[in-house]
Amino acid sequence: MGKGTVQTPSEKAEETLLAMKEFRRYLEGVEKDLSRTSKKFSNREIAQGVGFVAAGIHEALNYLEIVKKVIVKTERVVAKKNIGSEHTTVSTNPP
């Protein structure tokens, strides 16, 4: 998006979730590649190091999932709050 464009919090959250989805897909690919690579090396230290990196990526994926859940839940709460605010405004200002 351009610098002059103002995004609503909901649009920002949606954009963040999309970026996280793309990043997750990338990390999953790297994790699979590393797993295959670690099996190819006969040198135990290299294979072990690659395995540690793959495990770290797996942990990062777990944290991404937690962040995603927090964003989605926050969006739901904000949406409910906004709907509640609209109902209050409508009921206190009859036509």
Q: Which secondary structure elements does this structure contain, and how are they paired or packed?
A:
Layout lengths: L8 H32 L3 H49 L3
Helix pairs in contact: 1-2
Key structural traits:
single chain; 95 residues; mainly alpha; 0% strand
By helix and strand content, what is the structural category?
A: mainly alpha
Largest sheet: none
Total strand segments: 0
Distance between the termini: 39 Å
* Strand and helix order: HH
User: With helices defined by DSSP (H or I, 4 residues minimum), what is the helix count?
Assistant: 2
Query: What is the global morphology?
Result: elongated
Helical percent range? over 70%
Structurally, how many domains make up the residues? 1
| Strand content range | under 5%
Enumerate the spans where pLDDT stays under 50 for 5 or more consecutive residues: none
What is the chains' assembly state? single chain
Radius of gyration (Å): 22 Å
Average pLDDT confidence is 82
Describe this structure in words.
The longest helix has 49 residues, at 44-92. This protein has 95 residues and is mainly alpha-helical. 85% of the residues lie in helices and 0% in strands. It is built from two helices and no strands. Helix 1 packs antiparallel against helix 2 (44-92). The chain has one domain. The model has no long low-confidence stretch (mean pLDDT 82).
Give a brief outline of the structure.
The protein has two helices and no strands. By secondary structure, it is mainly α.
